Amino acid sequence: MSLPPGFLDELRTRTSLAQVVGRKVMWDSRKSNQGKGDLWAPCPFHQEKTASFHVDDRKGFYYCFGCHAKGDAIGFVRETENVDFMEAVRILAQEAGMPMPERDPQAQQKADRRTQLAEVMDMAVGHFRLQLQTGAGAVARDYLTGRGLDETACARFEIGFAPDGWQGLWDHLKAKGVEDDLIMACGLAKPSLKGGRPYDTFRNRIMFPIRDPRGRCIAFGGRAMDPNDNAKYLNSPETELFDKSRTLYHHGPAREAAGKGQPLIVAEGYMDVIALALAGFGASVAPLGTAVTEHQLQMLWRIADEPIIALDGDTAGLRAAYRVIDIALPLLEAGKSLRFAIMPEGQDPDDLLRAKGASAVQALLDDALPMVQLLWQRETEGHVYDSPERKAALDKALREKIKLIRDPSIRGHYGQALKEMRWQLFSPRRDTFKPGAAKWNKGGKWQPIPTAMPSTKSSLLVAADDAAQIRLREAAILASLVCTPEVFEEFEAPIEMMTCADPEHARLRDLILRHATAGADTLRTRIEEALGTHALENLLRLPHVALAPPVRRPGDVEVARMTIAAELAKLSAERGWSAEVSEAAEDLAGWADEALTWRLGQAAEERQRALRNQTEDQAEYDLAENGARISRDEREQFDALLETIRYTKPTR
């Protein structure tokens, strides 16, 4: 319908936005200045405690500084009442005392027909409710009583019964003077293939009226009483009134209950919704025989920011949840998501309510999983990741799912959350042994770890400066990654496997693994939040760290790559030497002197090789610092070293 020029301007002039919004919010008296039309309140479109929703009554616009919702009075009514543009105009015009312009004849005719169809549907509702009270409805009444639905509950949800006859409803409507084409257009009857009279769509079924948000009956759902019926549940066919992909059962009452603070629950069927509503969960809805559609998701998000998908605790329920995830990922917006409450195995919400009561359902709702966690579960459940290929397949699958998210901010947060879950899955076990403790031996039995003999403790091979050297290399590697996190992905595998001698380094390593891909600023912020500002200050002002080229030239990717690769190689060699000495010390009591001497001699030679490389270390630092060009042969050697470091687990 087209409106005449100037009608909307006049409507906006007569409408007070403050009055329209004031029906839905509580103004913040400290921030608001009603005399100037400058009003503030907690936003009605997202949950918050602070007053970030601003109304400029003189200009007629609102804006939320939290969720960025904005618009005028018409837009506010559309969003809060879940109506279309013309319906919002009609509501405001009625309040302002403005008559709506006459519609054109065709539009009026179409509206009149929809009104007629809705009237026929209401006649059918009355007929089915009456039939439930007859002798033919006795079996249906017994079934409903067994499901915990008394007369009051049946009246509340207008539940009825369609007897097992071919033209029961047809004859009733014809007796009321309803034309054939209206009955057929409502989907209440079907034409006979044998040339006879049309026959009723619903027969021998418990009937559930399906109403739109405005309360008009637009369709029916029928539950078969015959256990051998091919379709346990049957919905009306799509009509001029009914589009099942854009309809939710119990939509209107659920929207009202959600507006009063109740959580919006999405169940699988009519009986689940009815059971939930009777138990006090009034904001419950259900799709109509299909998986949740894109349009239904948008309808849900108009009601609540985080609807809870409550699905049956079986394989089919999980599959339905996974389908919802695929539909929802491209539609996610800031503040708009889903949570999932999975029922106990073999139970739906109705079963759980009858078995354990409303408190059990509330506990599941409180523990509902965020969508990212269920996405992770789907991609990892039942899989074993014991090879690089399988891990790579998981990474690829997760990347493909993340790509579906259109919002770049949400895409980044999903990537970070999945990265943390991956880290927890693949994180190596880092046991800390103390002298006199125990460990697994090669025979699979626990054995005590002997303490070192006094002569071994005094040996130069276990001098304190060796541990200090390892800590220095760890510090240089971590500082380089903090200053240039762009190179993190190249070294992720060896960094993940790096066992830090210093507990502070271990905590810093874990934070880098989780947040390096978010960028230098975010990484530093996360480190300071977790460890305090002193942690980075202490690390970066260490003399050997402060002089390292990546610290002096943060962001220089090439310098960071060369430094980290070199330090990891030296760290690997030193750890191999330390492990050899440790094993020799453990076996002192049972080894012959010659064997022990040979092993320690081999370890000493390895140590000397590591010491000789100190000069090479400084040369590499100098090359990086001065930006000198290296030869092609040297470049190939360095690339080979980098590949080795990247894919080889360091020696423990």
TrEMBL record:
<dbReference type="GO" id="GO:1990077">
    <property type="term" value="C:primosome complex"/>
</dbReference>
<dbReference type="InterPro" id="IPR006295">
    <property type="entry name" value="DNA_primase_DnaG"/>
</dbReference>
<keyword id="KW-0804">Transcription</keyword>
<dbReference type="GO" id="GO:0008270">
    <property type="term" value="F:zinc ion binding"/>
</dbReference>
<dbReference type="GO" id="GO:0006269">
    <property type="term" value="P:DNA replication, synthesis of primer"/>
</dbReference>
<keyword id="KW-0240">DNA-directed RNA polymerase</keyword>
<dbReference type="InterPro" id="IPR002694">
    <property type="entry name" value="Znf_CHC2"/>
</dbReference>
<dbReference type="InterPro" id="IPR030846">
    <property type="entry name" value="DnaG_bac"/>
</dbReference>
<dbReference type="InterPro" id="IPR034151">
    <property type="entry name" value="TOPRIM_DnaG_bac"/>
</dbReference>
<feature type="domain" description="Toprim">
    <location>
        <begin position="262"/>
        <end position="344"/>
    </location>
</feature>
<dbReference type="InterPro" id="IPR036977">
    <property type="entry name" value="DNA_primase_Znf_CHC2"/>
</dbReference>
<comment type="function">
    <text>RNA polymerase that catalyzes the synthesis of short RNA molecules used as primers for DNA polymerase during DNA replication.</text>
</comment>
<dbReference type="InterPro" id="IPR050219">
    <property type="entry name" value="DnaG_primase"/>
</dbReference>
<comment type="similarity">
    <text>Belongs to the DnaG primase family.</text>
</comment>
<dbReference type="GO" id="GO:0000428">
    <property type="term" value="C:DNA-directed RNA polymerase complex"/>
</dbReference>
<keyword id="KW-0863">Zinc-finger</keyword>
<dbReference type="InterPro" id="IPR006171">
    <property type="entry name" value="TOPRIM_dom"/>
</dbReference>
<keyword id="KW-0235">DNA replication</keyword>
<keyword id="KW-0639">Primosome</keyword>
<keyword id="KW-0862">Zinc</keyword>
<keyword id="KW-0460">Magnesium</keyword>
<dbReference type="Pfam" id="PF13155">
    <property type="entry name" value="Toprim_2"/>
</dbReference>
<dbReference type="GO" id="GO:0003677">
    <property type="term" value="F:DNA binding"/>
</dbReference>
<dbReference type="GO" id="GO:0003899">
    <property type="term" value="F:DNA-directed RNA polymerase activity"/>
</dbReference>
<comment type="subunit">
    <text>Monomer. Interacts with DnaB.</text>
</comment>
<keyword id="KW-0808">Transferase</keyword>
<protein>
    <recommendedName>
        <fullName>DNA primase</fullName>
        <ecNumber>2.7.7.101</ecNumber>
    </recommendedName>
</protein>
<keyword id="KW-0548">Nucleotidyltransferase</keyword>
<dbReference type="InterPro" id="IPR013264">
    <property type="entry name" value="DNAG_N"/>
</dbReference>
<dbReference type="InterPro" id="IPR037068">
    <property type="entry name" value="DNA_primase_core_N_sf"/>
</dbReference>
<keyword id="KW-0238">DNA-binding</keyword>
<feature type="zinc finger region" description="CHC2-type">
    <location>
        <begin position="43"/>
        <end position="67"/>
    </location>
</feature>
<dbReference type="Pfam" id="PF08275">
    <property type="entry name" value="DNAG_N"/>
</dbReference>
<dbReference type="GO" id="GO:0005737">
    <property type="term" value="C:cytoplasm"/>
</dbReference>
<dbReference type="Pfam" id="PF01807">
    <property type="entry name" value="Zn_ribbon_DnaG"/>
</dbReference>
<keyword id="KW-0479">Metal-binding</keyword>
